[in-house]
Write a structure and sequence with these properties.
Blueprint (H helix, E strand, L loop, with lengths): L5 E2 L6 E6 L10 H9 L3 E6 L12 H18 L5 E3 L11 H14 L3 E5 L13 H18 L17 E5 L6 E4 L4 H9 L2 H6 L8 H12 L7 E8 L1
Parallel strand pairs: 1-7, 2-3, 2-5, 3-4, 5-6
Antiparallel strand pairs: 6-8, 7-8
Helix pairs in contact: 1-5, 2-5, 3-4, 5-7
């Protein structure tokens, strides 16, 4: 028997989600985001790339504005109005000082109490190998929390240091520890992923059914969360 998942911490009001691509949040966290914004919390999205390498039948120059527009529409569905892009190259995001600096700047500027990122582990829970963009971006995001708090790291940034991040949450982690009840926000989660229509249609094979897999995942997670449909996160102590 797997251990029960703990309730997600609620002692925060502002969150910053930092991920590599459009659709990363929707494949694992959007239902929780919708639940949080319904409760009056503020969530901001920062994406490293515009996902321009994500549609095989569309050139990066064509795909970038399409995927950006889909992400902005998807964010609105779950109550997020602020979506930013770092304009890094999709598929070749590298861990390093420049990436840490860019994320630290965003943390100092938005001053979140919760930082959300995507699975940075080598594999997903299915055993499938994770992409280098996810691994590199996730690790840089977690490291940037300490960078943002130290005034002597990246002292050229205009923003004052920020040490107010209380919780680090990793979506789609193979090592989940906590969960969020999404029984009242599952429809928004489905709609937010469906908003990435060009991307879903461009997959091989195309994805036509979003509701089925998301509902099944929420139910499966809920088996470890009192039977309630839920989205799981790995919460890492700060």
């Amino acid at each position: 028997m797997s251990e029960e998942l703990k309730p997600f911490p609620d002692d925060w009001n502002t969150a910053l989600a930092v991920v590599a691509h459009p659709d990363d949040i929707e494949f694992g966290a959007a239902g929780a985001v919708a639940a949080w914004t319904k409760a009056g919390k503020t969530v901001t999205y920062v994406l490293a790339s515009r996902g321009e390498a994500g549609i095989d039948g569309m050139s990066p120059a064509e795909a970038a504005p399409v995927r950006e527009a889909e992400q902005r529409e998807s964010a609105k569905i779950v109550g997020v109005s602020s979506v930013e892009f770092l304009d890094l190259s999709d598929g070749t995001i590298e861990y390093g000082t420049p990436l840490r600096r860019a994320i630290a700047e965003a943390i100092r500027r938005h001053r979140p109490e919760l930082l959300i990122t995507f699975n940075f582990h080598d594999r997903f829970s299915s055993g499938r190998w994770n992409s280098p963009d996810h691994r590199n971006l996730g690790r840089a995001a977690l490291d940037a929390v300490a960078d943002a708090a130290n005034r002597w790291i990246f002292p050229d940034l205009d923003e004052e240091p920020w040490s107010g991040v209380r919780h680090l949450a990793v979506a789609n982690s193979p090592q989940p520890t906590h969960a969020v009840d999404v029984s009242g926000s599952l429809d928004q989660a489905v709609a937010s992923l469906e908003a990435h229509r060009a991307y879903l249609d461009g997959l091989r094979p195309p994805v036509s059914d979003v509701r089925g897999p998301l509902t099944a995942l929420a139910a499966q997670t809920g088996e470890r969360f009192g039977g309630r449909p839920a989205i799981a996160f790995e919460v890492i102590p700060c």
